[in-house]
Design brief:
Keywords: Membrane, Transmembrane, Transmembrane helix. Residues 1-21 are annotated as: Disordered. This protein is mostly helical and 464 residues long. It has one domain: Growth Hormone, Chain: A. It contains 17 helices and 2 strands. The chain has helices at 25-32, 42-66, 68-75, 79-107, 109-126, 133-147, 150-161, 164-196, 198-219, 231-237, 257-288, 296-322, 327-342, 354-382, 385-417, 421-425, 428-443; strands at residues 4-6, 247-249. Strands 1-2 form a two-stranded antiparallel ribbon.
């Protein structure tokens, strides 16, 4: 049975009610510029809380990749064993992307995000109880289920709190937290693990997630109900309000080409990010002999470059729009530029110098993050706000399914070929991004938003 995304009584569940633009907002738009700090700044505080969530999420997620050589020695894992552990994380992530997206649309962003973060925090802490490959599969399954809620929630929050002209930049800032988490992890582990053991690292990251839940529940409210938001900032947020639709049956999202443009893009590029996240530490260990105490600086460098790419991708498309480009031209041009940054990674597997390999991988991760920031933003460009969580969830499921394939492929290739298998794996990224932007353009050549007549039940109601 199709699930309904109910937009009625939105305020009661923590969702925003569209507000009319107040008198003088056009003048504010002209005077305030692209990011309009003059009309208020609280929305950027919300963006910072999302940034913290992304940072903690990726600390939890990356610990196992950085510790892979040590865990493999301790528990006798083969490459195939490790691939299977990652596989079960991806299976849960795929399930969570649909279920968490539905949950967010059903009970509201505030409560839904709190549930997701609580699940992943408890699962991260539960890694300390794992003593076998099976135990780690169970812990990673719980982690994947909860962590899947972060991106659907964050995209919904950004759509609620930012006008379209600021969304890509806000998305880039939030998304940069994933890189910060990937930076913190290799710096933290060489300090924590030798003194307290590997289990403590998992507990520490899980507790951080649970502390974040408290911050989220205390600080988040819909913008039109938030006591710390000025009326001028509320007007700015509502300066390009979307119409409020009565109902959108969940399965009715599937026939839309816009849904598949996003989902196929995620299916193609997300596995590449998983490849970087879970296998680059092993690559640096096997190809360049880097151990836990030496791998920190190279990984930090990779993700610092990646962080710049995330912010750059959001900034570039927003700048293009500010200079009069259409959303279609700005988003796709930026994504094509980002795809170009990925191409040189094919030379990384044969690089003799560790730092040459690090720079090539860093450029590729930067390209991914810039591409990803714009791909996420397409959901709020193309869909009514209340459908964003489900669309992001469906696309995220596609990305997780792609991740399932890469987990099995990487484990099998490296098991069969040893370190030389990295040459095969690093041929995949350049093709994935070019194919993704090509399919997006074919399915949505003008990035047309969903029209009122496309909706299943009646015309949109005017924003109230």
């Amino acid at each position: 049975m199709a699930q309904d995304i109910d937009v009625r009584d939105a305020g009661a569940r923590g969702e925003p009610r569209a507000q009319p633009a107040r008198t003088g907002i056009a003048e504010l738009q002209q005077k305030a510029g692209a990011f309009a700090f003059a009309v208020g700044k609280y929305r950027w505080s919300i963006c910072f809380i999302l940034f913290l969530a992304a940072t903690i999420n990726y600390v939890d997620r990356q610990i196992i990749g950085v510790l892979k050589p040590d865990l493999s020695k301790l528990y006798g894992w083969t490459e195939k064993d490790y691939g299977n552990i990652v596989f079960w994380f991806q299976v849960a992530y795929a399930i969570g992307m649909v279920s968490m997206g539905w949950l967010l649309d059903k009970i509201g962003t505030k409560r839904g995000f709190a549930v997701a973060a609580s699940v992943w925090g408890l699962a991260a802490t539960g890694h300390v109880l794992a003593t076998s490959a099976l135990g780690f599969k169970l812990a990673r399954f719980g982690l994947g289920l909860g962590e899947a809620g972060m991106f659907p929630a964050a995209v919904k929050v950004i759509a609620q709190w930012f006008p379209k002209r600021e969304r890509a930049f806000a998305m880039g800032l939030f998304n940069s937290g994933t890189n910060v988490g990937a930076i913190v992890t290799p710096l933290m582990l060489p300090i924590v693990v030798p003194v307290f053991g590997m289990g403590t690292a998992f507990v520490f990251s899980g507790v951080l997630a649970l502390l974040w839940v408290g911050l989220w529940l205390a600080k988040f409210h819909p913008p039109d109900e938030h006591p710390s938001v000025t009326q001028r900032e509320k007007d700015w947020i509502a300066s390009d309000p979307a119409p409020v639709y009565p109902k959108i049956p969940w399965l009715r999202l599937l026939p839309w080409r816009q849904t598949w443009a996003y989902a196929i893009g995620k299916f193609l590029i997300d596995p590449i990010w998983w490849l970087y996240l879970f296998w680059v530490p092993g690559f640096l260990n096997q190809k360049h002999g880097l151990t836990l105490t030496k791998i920190g600086l190279p990984l930090v460098t990779i993700y610092l470059i990646s962080d710049v790419g995330s912010i750059f991708g959001g900034w570039l498309s927003s700048t293009f729009i500010r200079h009069g480009w259409s959303i279609n031209r700005a988003r796709k041009t930026t994504m094509l530029i980002c795809a170009g940054l990925v191409a040189p990674i094919v030379f990384a597997s044969e690089a003799k110098s560790t730092w040459t390999a690090v720079v090539l991988i860093g450029l590729a991760t930067a390209g991914h993050q810039g591409f990803s920031a714009n791909l996420f933003t397409l959901t709020s460009d193309l869909f009514p706000t209340k459908a964003v969580g489900s669309v992001v969830g469906f696309g995220g499921m596609g990305g997780a399914i792609g991740g399932i394939f890469i987990a099995q492929a990487a484990g099998s290739i490296l098991q069969a070929m040893g370190p030389s298998g990295y040459y095969v794996l690093l041929l995949l990224p350049p093709a994935a991004y070019v194919l993704a932007i090509s399919i997006i353009h074919v399915l949505s050549p003008r990035l047309e938003p969903i029209r009122p007549q496309d909706l299943p039940e009646g015309p949109p109601q005017p924003a109230r």
